[in-house]
Amino acid sequence: MSNNEFQSILDGIWQRLAKAAKDPADPWRLPTLAAQGLNGPSARTMVMRSADSSERLLTAQTDIRSTKISGFRKDPRVAWLFFDPAKQEQVRATGRAIIHHDDDITRRAWPSVPEANQYNYATGHAPGASIDDPAQGQATSGDLAKAYDNFAVIRCEITAIDWLQLGTTAHRRAQFSWNGTDWLATWAVP
């Protein structure tokens, strides 16, 4: 990328993503993650756990028993959607999801998961399973030892970014695509 303005926009996007991963109040912390599910398109709100510009990675955590895992394995293409209503800024990032389960990535991530959140992975039933009573969807303290067995990390290698800045008099949009060694950039009609 030769244009300084494009580089500034791209750097700003990655800096904001990294900040949002650490700031629960940032609206980009809770993006929508969309993929081709087993029964068609599927979108959900996820907690973004990290953003790494040098590796072009966005990460989230999930239960390995979730139906989205099968969808990602069938078709790993994903789209992330970030929107900040106060700044009127939208970013769409697309790429491929890689699922990590009981490997180096998950072993390093697990200790940083607060104990209260580890219980989310200790339920006796898979996410989305039908139950007779809401209490059946809750983990108990005795289940915590099994929680790590259900823990997975979704790492998404980003290959395209679409940035949109809404304004009162004009909107601006830039698109970035990874060519294998560098980001290519172009302006686009908003």
Task: Describe the model.
The protein is of the alpha+beta class. It has a single domain (4-187), classed as Pnp Oxidase, Chain A. It is built from 5 helices and 9 strands; from the N terminus they run αββββαββαααβββ. Strands 1, 2, 3, 4, 5, 6, 7, 8 and 9 form a 9-stranded antiparallel beta sheet that branches. The two termini are 21 Å apart.
Can you summarize this structure?
23% of the residues lie in helices and 37% in strands.
Question: Which labels suit this protein?
Answer:
single chain; 190 residues; alpha+beta; Pnp Oxidase, Chain A; 9-stranded antiparallel β-sheet; 5 helices; 23% helix
Task: Describe the SSE topology.
Elements: H1 4-22, E1 32-37, E2 40-45, E3 50-52, E4 57-63, H2 67-74, E5 77-84, E6 89-101, H3 104-109, H4 115-118, H5 144-150, E7 151-165, E8 172-178, E9 183-187
Q: Can you count the beta strands?
A: 9
CATH class: Mainly Beta
- Low-confidence spans: none
Whole-Å distance between the termini?
A: 21 Å
Succession of helices and strands: HEEEEHEEHHHEEE
Class by alpha and beta content? alpha+beta
